[in-house]
Amino acid sequence: MLRILLVEDDSDVAQVTGGMLEYAGYHVTTASNGRYGLDLILQEQPQLVITDFMMPMMSGLEMIEQARAAGYAGPIILCSAVPESQFPPHHARYDLFLHKPYGVSTLLSALEHLRARM
User: Fold this and answer.
1) Number of domains in the chain
2) Does some domain include residue 97?
3) How wide is the angle at C-alpha 74 spanned by C-alphas 25 and 82, nearest 5°?
4) CA distance 39 to 113
5) Tell me, what's the pLDDT at 86?
6) What is the Cα gyration radius of the chain?
7) Cα torsion at 21, 25, 31, 34 (round to 10°)?
8) CB-count burial class (<10 Å; 0-12, 13-18, 19+) for 8
9) Which of 6, 10, 48, 69 has minimal CB crowding within 10 Å?
10) pLDDT at residue 99, as a whole number
11) Looking at residue 90, what DSSP letter applies?
């Protein structure tokens, strides 16, 4: 069972997405902000991370940069309503971008794509 960390500050989105992922057979841990997400990445070393971009305390990009600098090498999906083209040119190293709102099938396809590369 793939261990996923879901970092999402909107509790409704986190609950629905987490529940859907668990129903699909994944083990999901959630964090409500980038700081807590980084702590969980470093402590628990999830196999895959799904993170929102705009969050309190630390953005998804900042969290990714710090996780990568600390040695986390697992796949990361960044999700945002902000178009990817508006990110700074030296943005963090994530593996896949999903534009919000995304559908269940889009997220599950993205997970399977990344899982096949693991």
Assistant:
1) 1
2) no
3) 85
4) 26
5) 83
6) 13
7) -70
8) buried
9) 69
10) 94
11) T
CA distance 75 to 63: 14
Query: What global pTM score does this model have?
Result: 0.94
Residue 66 lies in a domain: yes
DSSP 17-83: HHHHHHHTT-EEEEESSHHHHHHHHHHH--SEEEEESS-SSS-HHHHHHHHHHTT--S-EEEEESS-
Spatial distance between the Cα atoms of 49 and 3, rounded to a whole number of angstroms: 9
Q: Residue 26 sits in which domain range? A: 1-40+49-87
Q: Per the domain annotation, does 68 fall within a domain?
A: yes
Mean pLDDT confidence for 93-112: 94
Q: Is 78 contained in some domain?
A: yes
